[in-house]
Amino acid sequence: MARWDYKKDIDYNAIDMQKVRGDSFLFQLLTIASFIEITSDTYAKNLSEYYDDNPKAVQWLQEDWEKEEIQHGEALKRYVLHVWPEFPWQKAYERFLELYLPLCNTGSFQPTRGLEMLARMIVETGTSTMYRAFEDYAKSLDEPVLAGLTHYIYKDEVNHYSYFDRYFKYYNQSENLGRKEILQVIVQRLKEASSEDIEMGFQSIYEIQNDAVFDRSSYELFKKELNKLAKKHYPYSMAIKMTMQPLNLNKTLETTMVPVIRGAMKVLGI
Ligand SMILES: [Fe+2]
Ligand SMILES: [Fe+2]
User: Which ligand has the minimum distance to the alpha carbon of residue 39?
Assistant: First the structure.
């Protein structure tokens, strides 16, 4: 079970509206994150099917991971609706589901259970570092409620990473994955992390707010803002450390790999 409860632990009435209400980029970021997080039940179901050999993993996925991810979505949704109550969240979310659900199937899973655990580690690296950046951004805006909320989420994501790491190691005892295979999955997941779901979230907001066909150039502007945020607030060294951990490298190799991973992240726009 989640170690915090957004209904009790987040005081939405204490939000400093002046600091955030005019920030449309922040609105987009938090709304997109709420859409993706709140849809975690679909992933939990697919993952539980994939790991039906492992009742302990399934229990953790259903009783902890899924509940915590959905809580992230609910907590962010409430923040968005508190600050921007005129936004038809539900309507935009329904559009998001139309675009996003066809992508959520076990067909996109890795070929082995160990490699899929590894892919989940990369996803959790993405979320951990993203919420760490959001927390830092919220602090720079001097909005303590958002800083507190994103800190809670950040802690959960790091915890998810360590669970998936544990299961990755468990499966790797029998799968004996080589570094090349591991690196391939890392790079592949890094590519995916930077794209589709965020763009679909953006598209749904755009369509509902403008009542118009999606204009890709507005997404390019959003990405520019995202890059600006990353430059100031993204914890790159934490991301690199978490990304490289499954490679289990010695110190010399690790030093060699840092610029490779950093370079890959740059190319991918992370
Ligand atoms: Fe989450
Ligand atoms: Fe997570």
Answer: 1
**pLDDT, mean of each 10-residue run, the chain (270 residues):** 87 97 97 96 91 96 96 98 98 96 80 94 92 96 97 97 96 91 84 78 96 92 92 90 82 71 64
Domains assigned to the chain? 20-267 (1.10.620.20)
CA–centroid distance, 27 to ligand 2, in Å, is 21
Cα 215 to the center of its chain, rounded Å: 24
- Supply the DSSP symbol for 65: I
**Contact call for residues 234 and 212 (beta carbons, < 8 A):** no
pTM passes above 0.85: yes
Q: Give the three-state DSSP class for 59.
A: helix
CA of 38 to the centre of ligand 1 (A): 9
> How many Å separate Cα 241 from the centre of its chain?
17
